Structure prediction request, 242 residues.
Amino acid sequence: MGKSKRKEHKVLKDSLKVLFDGRLVIFEAVKGLIRDGQYAEALVRSERPGILALGIAPEDLKGLRYLRKRLQDKKKYKPDLSNIDWAYVDHLDKYGEVDAPPPCFVMALDAADELNIPVASLDMDNEAHTDIYVNSVGLPDLLRQSFRFRYMKKKKFHIRTPEEFVLNWDRLLNKARGFRVVERSRELCMGETLKHLLEKHKDAKIVAIVEIERAPGVIEWATRPPEKKQAKVEKKAKQKAP
Prediction:
């Protein structure tokens, strides 16, 4: 993909979160920027974690490994991006050099494999994602997103940093309730998976690469005490009761 003519932005210090007395390090990455791929790779090499956790689905993790093999065999590769993804990349290119699949996942995975670090996927599998999507996103949501995307595609984003742009893009794209439910479900899954990894591997440090849009929700679920989680579930159940 093309290089940006603008000066590359540095990764913000706030993009790195250290939790559970240093056992969990989360990098809130901007998907698409090579800058963040380089940072993720350096993070894996410097931390040498017991586990690298990527905020992608199990099928996507397999896909990244398959893609690497194709590239090693010198086979051609063309990113399979949706119209929304292409528009996102076109806007993001203003903030630095971009590539697909997201370098933050690809380059971190390459470093982990080179160092023989086990890699885990955090996100829900495709079947679970499809079920939630079908049950949550209705025709009105699809129409609202379609109309909004036409506006976003042409919009001039006068935003200083790539982090601000990505968060603003995500807020606009997922404004319809159905899409918000899907993304909140992804955050819950990733947070619960992180918690499971921490409990299962009590002596291991975990480095997690999570897209910046979902990171706050993931951290909230990963750090939420069980009693508060149960209270939230019960409150929602009461609100839905007739």
About this structure: Residues 128 and 186 are 10 Å apart (CA to CA). The radius of gyration is 18 Å. The chain has one domain: 13-224. The longest strand covers residues 24-29.
